[in-house]
Write a structure and sequence with these properties.
Number of strands: 0
Radius of gyration: 14 Å
Order of helices and strands: HHHHHHHHH
Number of domains: 1
Strand content: under 5%
């Protein structure tokens, strides 16, 4: 496991989770306090392509891989495993409703990462519901 895969203070992880949920003040706080990659990742989770490209171009392929893996991209899932991003892999798989990854996160990580995974899962599920709803096609969050 890469120790630096999410080496942020607990409060930053919790702020990120709340930003993912839509808390605009905390989303802005991430940007204003030097966590531009988390600010961009929040937008990438919501399918904003420029943010996805920014993550890849600015040295955060592991965050983009986690997001893609959480969307069912098997290549991204394998990439995370291959390069030892166990935490990010299990966050992504938990978002994908894999119970074993929820158990893994409980055994090997801190509670704030479980909160983050749940926040991402709620948003990803909402996006998928909107994409499957003929009345809300292409209406992303």
């Amino acid at each position: 496991m890469k120790e630096n895969s999410l080496s942020y203070p607990s409060l930053v992880i919790l702020a990120w989770a709340k930003a993912v949920e839509g808390h605009a003040n905390l989303h802005n706080w991430l940007q204003e306090n030097g966590y531009l990659e988390l600010w961009m990742a929040t937008q990438a989770i919501r399918l904003h392509d420029p943010a996805r490209q920014w993550l890849l171009k600015n040295g955060y392929p592991e965050l983009m891989a986690m997001i893609s893996a959480a969307e069912g991209d098997e290549k991204a899932q394998k990439w995370l495993q291959q390069f030892g991003y166990d935490v990010l892999y299990h966050i992504a798989m938990a978002v994908e409703h894999e119970q074993e990854s929820w158990f893994w996160l409980r055994r090997h990580t801190n509670p704030e990462l479980i909160i983050l995974a749940k926040s991402i899962q709620v948003i990803k599920d909402r996006i998928e519901e909107n994409h499957n709803d003929v009345h809300a096609i292409h209406k992303d969050l």
